[in-house]
Write a structure and sequence with these properties.
The chain is α/β, with parallel strands linked by helices. Helix content is 46%, strand content 15%. A seven-stranded parallel sheet has the order 3-2-1-4-5-6-7, with helices on both faces.
Amino acid sequence: MSGILAGKIALVTGGSTGIGRATSIVLAQEGATVVIADLQDEEGANTVGMVEEVGGKAEYHHIDVTDFAQVKSLVDDIADRHGSLDGAFNNAGIEGPTAKIENVSIEDWERVIGVNLTGVFNCMKCEIEQMIKQDTGGSIVGTSSAAGLVGIPGAPSYNASKHGVVGLTKTIALEYGSRNIRVNAVCPGFIETPMLDRVTDASAKIRDQLIKMVPMRRVADPSEIGHAVAWLLSDKSSYVTGVALPVDGGWVAQ
């Protein structure tokens, strides 16, 4: 397929559902061969099928991003079979409990930080090493959140993890810009995903309250995040690095 990512090999973690699924489809439509990594095997296979339905190429791998050895093995496998890793969308994440800090257990804190921040670190470390080895540069995008740019009461572990992704993004962008490796983050607001359903407990009232907070007065389709990611992974954004890009209908501009 032709497109702004034609001929590129792109890894998407957390690619089985939600933003990851929609982005995988968008990247494939833009010409990338997409490697989907997740723990949800059935949904991952479904996403591969959706990519193939639109004429794209994708494959699925079972992986836990909190396990560095698994991440390293996958990146090595991508390089061996495809010849390079051109782009990566480090998207795997969980929301964690909705509670004030006094009611957040150490176990919940460690689980959220482990997936949302350490998982991104693991992926980024392996991706950077591969991109240096192949000496062709590359582009990495992480999923932060509007909650990575502002404080939101009631989600300390999630907020901290997403702020951490922004800090990690800026630091690694500075460290490897001279190697033609770009590192950016997207910061989604309220997106039509299973995670939003869980956060709102499928409550129409809570959903309406959230929409009223957004200047554009709607939640986003996950493909709208996917198009932002595709641009950041492509050469169309060749002079963009170290950016935490809000894709939030104007919410954090208030």
